[in-house]
Amino acid sequence: MTATDVLLEQNTPVPARPPARTRRERPTFTAVITWVAAACFVLVVLGILASVLVQSFATVWRGGWWPDGFTAGWYGRAWTTTGMSRALVNTFEAGVAVVLVCLLAGVPAGYLLARRSFPGRSLIMLLMLLPIILPPMTYAVQLAALMYRLGLGGSMTAVVLVNLVPTLPLVVLIMVPFVEQISPEVESAARVFGANNRRLFTHVLVPLLLPGMLAAGILVLVRTLGAFELTFFVSGAETQTLVVALFGAISDPGGVPVSLTAAMAVTYMLVAVLGLAISLRYVTPSQAIRQRHR
User: Domain ABC transmembrane type-1: where (predicted)?
Assistant: First the structure.
């Protein structure tokens, strides 16, 4: 073999090997059970929601598989005769007020608990868990009695104050680990460059704590929208939220058509889903984290 043959053999491209066939793994028994259980749960939830939606448009539904007719008049009747329009405004006002107060008070409180070590700190953290894990009915009556003694019964102020009891500790407990993830050296460096307490908090800590604040705000909003017991005992005819108005329509001794309460329930679900979707669209914690690390 000459040198030319050796060079030609070295420069000849080697044909690529066909990719090896990936062996499909068989699903395990645990995976099958998990997927089947999840599918059954989703089907049950969708079936319940679909039945409520169909009921809200039904003229008469005698218990068969399908109503006798359909109408959208129940939504107009719910809007005009049950006070749902005012309840929607009250729900929005209460939700926004509770979120703002919780963030304004809960973020500094979480910072102090994360940065300061003092006797009784563990006890305070434990006590904050009680309003979150205890059923609201266990302390709703006592809170309502206190609001009426203070002359706040039936007012929007009372609605906001009682909803702060379970939501404010929630914000504090969420913010504590977020503060602990920030190195104290960052604050020391900001002070070296002349930042006072106000500028340190607003220009350094708030941007770093923004993901936790957004997550806490979303959880507080969702919990306030669904709060029934606390709001029911202190709200009046002009300050009841949508969930309380829905309960009042269902429990009306005069008898309310099922389709009317179904229309109110669909409206409540749409408001809750819309509020959550808007919150996640504009204040997604994951987006805030990515923007912070750019």
Answer: 88-279
* Banded model confidence at residue 289, pLDDT cuts 50, 70, 90: very low
Estimate to the nearest angstrom the gap between the alpha carbon of 219 and the chain centroid.
Answer: 4
Looking at 1.10.760.10, 3.10.105.10, 1.10.3720.10, 1.10.1410.10, the CATH number of the domain 83-292 comes to: 1.10.3720.10
Do 242 and 87 contact (CB within 8 A), yes or no? yes
Encode pLDDT of 228-270 as tens digits. 888 989 988 888 888 888 787 777 656 667 787 888 888 878 8
Contact yes or no for 118/179 (Cβ under 8 A): no
Place of tokens 């941007």: 207
Helix (H, G, I), strand (E, B) or coil at 149: helix
Q: Is 70 helix (H, G, I), strand (E, B) or coil?
A: strand
Per DSSP, the three-state class of 154 is strand
